[in-house]
Design brief:
Layout: E1 2-7, H1 14-25, E2 29-31, H2 32-41, H3 45-55, H4 62-73, E3 81-85, H5 91-103, E4 110-115, H6 118-132, H7 139-163, E5 166-170, H8 175-191
Parallel strand pairs: 1-3, 1-4, 2-3, 4-5
Bound molecules: adenosine monophosphate.
């Protein structure tokens, strides 16, 4: 049973790789960004609260995000393990996830980080903006999201690295090779 996290800057292709990894490990990919976008689409109260932050590239407050994830992890499919995409993004969220897992007597297996140069990330997000019309894929919002990643999310990577469960791979290149490298890295970490 695998309990995994995929991390990396906006635009690195986390969502795509998460789908393939989740399929390989037979676990659900749980993306907090997708959960929020679902709420926005369905015009829920939570969606209304989150969209103001999302549209500006800001983080939705920790407690709001954590409550939403806690509920999602209660679904039966997460009993078999999960791949988190987009959470934790702050050091506070690391602690919240630790508590959620400890309450169920569970532990994290591995954290996979994808990397790519900033220039490539911006180009990919601008392309995605054209393809998918995401409101938060505009140039100024993209810069803000990259800045938040550096300031708030890099320390999350450092923390997992200190725990010895972080594996990092190059996220540039073709989709298939990245997926193969990601699977090998995660299996190596799980076996360690
Ligand atoms: P993503 O699809 O992962 O890029 O997430 C899209 C947006 O959802 C982010 O820019 C944030 O506004 C919000 N979001 C997703 N996950 C989190 C999180 N863990 N903490 C705070 N905000 C989040």
């Amino acid at each position: 049973m695998a309990r995994l996290i995929i991390m990396g800057p906006p635009g690195v292709g986390k969502g795509t790789q998460a789908e393939y990894l989740a399929r390989h490990f037979s676990i659900p990919a749980i993306s907090t960004g997708d959960l929020f976008r679902g709420h926005v689409r369905n015009k829920t109260e939570l969606g209304a609260e989150a969209s103001g932050y999302m549209d500006h590239g800001e983080f939705v407050p920790d407690h709001v995000t954590t409550d939403m994830l806690r509920q999602r992890l209660e679904d039966n499919d997460a009993d078999a393990g999960f791949l988190l995409d987009g959470y934790p993004r702050t050091v506070i969220q690391i602690g919240a996830l630790d508590e959620m897992l400890a309450a169920k007597g569970r532990a994290l297996g591995a954290v996979l980080a994808l990397t790519a140069p900033d220039g490539e990330l911006v180009a990919r997000m601008l392309r995605r903006a054209k393809e998918q019309g995401r409101a938060d894929d505009t140039e100024s919002v993209i810069q803000r999201r990259l800045e938040l990643y550096r300031d708030e999310t890099q320390p999350v990577l450092t923390a997992y690295s200190h725990r010895g469960i972080l594996v990092t791979i190059d996220g540039s290149g073709d989709r298939e090779s990245i997926t193969a490298a990601a699977i090998a890295a995660v299996e190596g970490a799980l076996a360690a």
